[in-house]
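help with this.
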Amino acid sequence: MRPHALPFAILLSVTAACGDIVVSEVEDVSDGGADSGAGPADVADDPDVSRPPPDVDGTSDGAVEPPPHDVGEDAFKDVPEVPPDVIEDAPSEVGDDVAFDDGAPHDVEADAPEPECLAASDCPDPEQVCRTAACVDGSCEVAIPVGVACDDQDGCTEGDVCQVDGVCAGAWSGVCECQTDGDCAFLDAPCGVGRCEQESKSCVLDPEPRLGDACDDGDPCTFDDGCQADGQCQGTAYSCGDGLLPCQQTACNGAGGCLAPEVKPGSCLIEGQCYEAGDAMPVSPCLVCDPLADPTGPTQRPDGTACDADGDGCTAGDACKMGVCAPGPAVECPSPSASCRVASCKSTGSESYSCTESTKSGWCFIGGVCRSSGELNPSNACMACSPSKSTTAFSPRASGTSCGSSTSNQCTKPDTCDGKGTCQPNHMSAGTACGDSTDGPCTNPDSCDGKGTCKSNDPPNGTSCGTCKQCISKVCTNVCR
């Protein structure tokens, strides 16, 4: 069972009985105490209110004498200090077994009644200025809405709001004339007091009574604050923060000194270097700045977090492991299209790639056909596979390489390549002597025709070779009879 919650004001009347401290009355004065409706008898009869066990040390008969209802400050002057053992033996928290005056232990939690309310709307409206309903731990209470606008029904004030004591009050507006200094008390400040200026009947701030008094100007970066002649509180200014790194901060301590530098929220300072939340360390993308975990050291990313170990898109699934970015397995490309080809992965970015084919060393891949190094073009003996020059086309063979016809005679030599991919004949030039070199009336020396053939230069039959003579079959023959 839960003790009554008294959130706003509690009045304790304490009596000393042979050294024992006894709570004799609890009054809820949250609404002024005037109409709480609970007197000493109500509290005594309420089983929900915790009371000390009777006859703590055997010297008391357990009776509790109610004190006078009005308890002033003097009532507490002679109250003895509560012995430590009494404090230690008190229930530590709601839910402990608490002994009531029936002598039996009670489980407070088990005996708890149904809550009176779940929200403030479940509670009755106090219908008083500066009072509002509140639901506290399941009980309806009356709260003071401090700072909420209200109307104190005084035409000489403005800015009326509820005060902490539950009174609606405002500041003198200047519309009404003041009569005494008391009317100007609202101007009282650490560096001046409110005065009623009798000639004008208006309130003014008089700084003279507090000139030079110590005060606090609210600025931690000043010290020796004092009240000035203008009614302001002012100190000697100084600054902090010189020489700090961008991710460090400090603050003035109000006494001319600075607080120890600390790392700014959302930043890390690691080995003298500033980082923002989420920044990776230069040594590993798996070590990052995590200000919530450790603002002064790197934090490991969870194992399995994707990362880039090598900037190579041909390794897939790079992932963090114990703060290190480990490369994943190599990408597998489809099988090559020919036996002389090799399939390989080409990285196009840290996380992208393409599969390409290349020709094996010592081979050409021409027109979809594998050609070994030196293999001739079937249609041109002066073109061959030369991988050092091209793996995708035949290359010209060296000039002078044998090709075509191998015939060799007085008018021609074996064909050779011209070094440009053409097989050319090596014929002797026209007129080169060859064959029969006899020279007579009906014969002339043979000569090459420039096309690889040795031709006869003899005059044709019937050619005159003298009087009544003609060449017949290379013989000068007498034809006159």
